Amino acid sequence: MASNRERLRGLYAVTPETADTASLVARSRMALEGGARLLQYRAKSMDAATALDQARRLAAECRKAGALFIVNDSVDLALAAGADGVHLGRGDVAIAAARARLPAGIVGVSCYADPESARAAAAAGADYVAIGSVHPSRTKPAAVRAPREAIAAAGRASGLPVAAIGGITPANAAALVQAGADMLAVISALFDAADVGVAARAFTRTFDRREAPSKEEMPDVRAQPRPL
Fold first, then answer.
1. Active-site residue identified among 7, 42, 56, 119
2. Known catalytic residue: 215?
3. What is the C-alpha to C-alpha distance for residues 69 and 49, in angstroms, rounded to an integer?
């Protein structure tokens, strides 16, 4: 079985904040069925009881789909919900403290527009880093823009998988994957889509195309010796 770190690749669905639990679970299920490899529960202002209920339901959906479930900000909630890990941003608990409480879990870290900070994140015990906002974002309109080159720079500095985040759509996704993104963290273009499953499959195909060998990489079968 692949380790959790080896599974850090592909569409990384990040949930919108909503009190409509049934809708949240249904749309998340569609994202998972469409190929999302990771799902992050993000609820900055939700009351504790609702957050725990939603997180537990989403964790169950991820287990059924074979996807990783990550909780934003809260190690306590991640542990209570049985999540695979936590994602930390500016002002959250220190990476080393999260690692101490989640020794076998995933710890992701936002590095914003500063790829060099990915080096420190790796040294402190992170499993992946996130770079963004790579495009203007409706979720965080005031976020500092990260140049596309910061994705590969963060990977080189840290040696870790890199998630691109911020304003990602099917139209700009391929360029980010080509720039070195191992994961595409998407909120609005996924969960606001008329059909979440169709949108998820569009993002997933971006990674399928990168895996497909080019004509130059494919062996020329005509040049191979025929079996006797």
1. 42
2. no
3. 19
